[in-house]
Design goal:
- 25% of the residues lie in helices and 39% in strands.
- It is α+β, with helices and mostly antiparallel strands.
- The protein has one domain: 3-Layer(bba) Sandwich (D-tyrosyl-trna(Tyr) Deacylase, Chain: A).
- Strands 1, 2, 3, 6 and 7 form a five-stranded mixed sheet that branches.
- Helix 1 runs parallel beside helix 3.
- The relative contact order is 0.30.
Length: 145
């Protein structure tokens, strides 16, 4: 499982010209589910996302978690995070979980994170062609494996 966290001032995901999820200040999460992932990995990533300190504290340092600040979170499933270029220039996605495995794990990730942060987590539409817009704050972007 790969989770890219982008600290944002705002973010939105659009499908077919319609905004399906949007937030103000907080985290945009791009989530890639691998074929080896299980509910245990989902739980580990939820804990890490909720505790990682990327939000600015009173000294403008990354000293606070998203939970500390009650910041918003937008989660978008993105299988392309599992791209493998080891055999050339065209990506292979063999490491990505198939949709029938990935969707339930993504949904579990969103549900558990929502419970942990005590707030709803807007998402994109799983498997859809989505356009994601954001204003990266910092810029701060980290990758959790």
């Amino acid at each position: 499982m790969v989770v890219v966290i982008q600290r944002v001032q705002s973010a939105a995901v659009t499908v077919a010209g319609e905004i399906v999820g949007q937030i103000g200040a907080g985290y945009l999460l791009l989530v890639g589910i691998s074929k080896e992932d299980t509910a245990v990995e989902v739980q580990r990533q939820v804990a890490q996302v909720s505790k990682v300190r990327l939000m600015a504290d009173a000294d403008c340092k990354m000293g606070l978690s998203i939970k500390d600040t009650a910041g918003a979170v937008l989660a978008v499933s993105q299988f392309t995070l599992l791209a493998d270029f080891s055999k050339g220039n065209r990506p292979s996605f063999n490491n990505a979980a198939k949709p029938d495995v990935a969707k339930p794990l993504f949904d579990l990730f969103v549900q558990q994170l929502s419970t942990e942060l005590e707030q709803p987590i807007p998402t994109g539409v799983f498997g859809a062609d989505m356009q994601v817009s954001l204003v990266n704050d910092g810029p701060v972007t980290v990758v959790l494996y």
